[in-house]
Amino acid sequence: MKLAPLFALTALTAAALGQTSPPLTAAEHAAGWRYLFDGTSTDAWRGFKQAGFPAAGWVVEEGTLKVGKGGGDLITREQFGDFELSLEFKCAPKANSGIIFRCDESAGATWQTGPEFQVLDDAGHGAKPDDAHSAGALYDLVKPPADKVVKGAGEWNQARVRIKDGVLQHYLNGRKVVECRIDTPEWKQKIAASKFKDYKNFGLLPKGHIALQEHGDDVWYRNIRIRDLSAPMPGEVTLFNGKDLSGWTFFLNDNGKMHEVWSVDNGVLVCKGTPAGYIRTEKPYTSFVLKLEWRWSPVTKKEGNSGVLVRVQEPHKVWPKSIEAQLQSGRAGDFWNIGDFQMTTDTARLNGRNTRHTHANERPIGEWNEYEIIVNGPDVVLNVNGDTLNSAGECAVIPGPIALQSEGTEIHFRRVRLSPLP
Fold it and tell me: 242 lies in which domain range?
């Protein structure tokens, strides 16, 4: 089973049918995605230091947003802090442009306040793949890897920019090419060593516009989507209120008591880890986008094991019939099939009841991680810290609680919420 970004298949299908931008699926909408440019409307954009859309330089052409010479940079009318942006770009030979983010209009150009995902025809400029000014780079600050995949002039590339809790990620054609923190002294040192050292507030704004750069060359953009990672998902249901365990019940071995294993500390749900068992939602859920964050104790920094169980079935025991999204250190993104739950995964990574993730993508022990678990009818997708690590199909579509495991080691949870799907 081949993994793909949430929107990739619908985008490819729409392109094959000659449509402009594909409609959002129910899962995409629930996850918070919306269009900034859908192939027709430019309402989300205006010119840099202009009240409206540029009168020249930028045009809508066959479902794309094309920039040529003149018109200046294009910026979003809205400003964004933590966000995930996805789009496709195509360069003319030797073309240059950029996706600039968290910029404002206090300086003479967008790039003087906002960092840039470089858009470039690498071959036309003779740029090495791992040059800090090549396609996908965090311009002049972080290089992409030498084995990145970039398509040449006249071909479409897929770009994604994600900022969440101080971590910036660039993706090019489905692969992560940049990851760095932008809230540390090291980040300020990078800026001080770059061409941006003399620009006040460069790379330091907590939120700002997203800009598409006009560099005098023909570049096309399409399928421009965004989700605000600071905002609630549409129809969001808070499962953990940050105060107490309202809405949860439990099962624990050895006659364990919920309040002796699970507690709340400054908005964080703390699990002691023993005895084995789980807390589960009082309500059942069938299809949803679930988001939560977890970390291992920042004090003990002890690695451990836990998991998120979805579509939990009775009888309640250790462990109940369900689909487990693994949280074991180094294995987050694995599936465990518990109780012969009906599901199909990639046989190349399947070993008994376990389906290994495609790659590891966890933060260091003691730091927060994010799980996005998309349970959509017969399909389940596991995203960890922005990367899709696993998917399953043909899953039994049956309602059941969502559970968080107590499995031997202290683990913390926060921001546990979901957006229901039809």
Answer: 237-420
The verdict on 203 and 290 lying in the same domain is no
User: Is residue 43 domain-resident?
Assistant: yes
DSSP state of 347: G
Residue 188, CB-side half-sphere exposure with 13 Å CA sphere: 7
Burial of 206: CB neighbours in 10 Å, binned 0-12, 13-18, 19+: exposed
Given 228, 252, 278, the domain boundary residue is 228
The answer to whether 276 and 408 have CB atoms below 8 angstroms apart is yes
Which of 199, 228, 257 is where one domain is finished? Answer: 228
Residues 329 and 413 in one domain: yes
pTM: 0.93
Peptide bond into 319 cis (omega under 30): yes
Strand partners, 91: 219
**Letter for the amino acid at 325?**
A
CA gap 287, 163 in Å, rounded: 27
Tens digits of per-residue pLDDT, 90-124? 999 999 999 999 999 999 999 999 999 999 999 99
**Surface-to-core class of residue 13, CB atoms within 10 Å of its CB (0-12 exposed, 13-18 middle, 19+ buried):** exposed
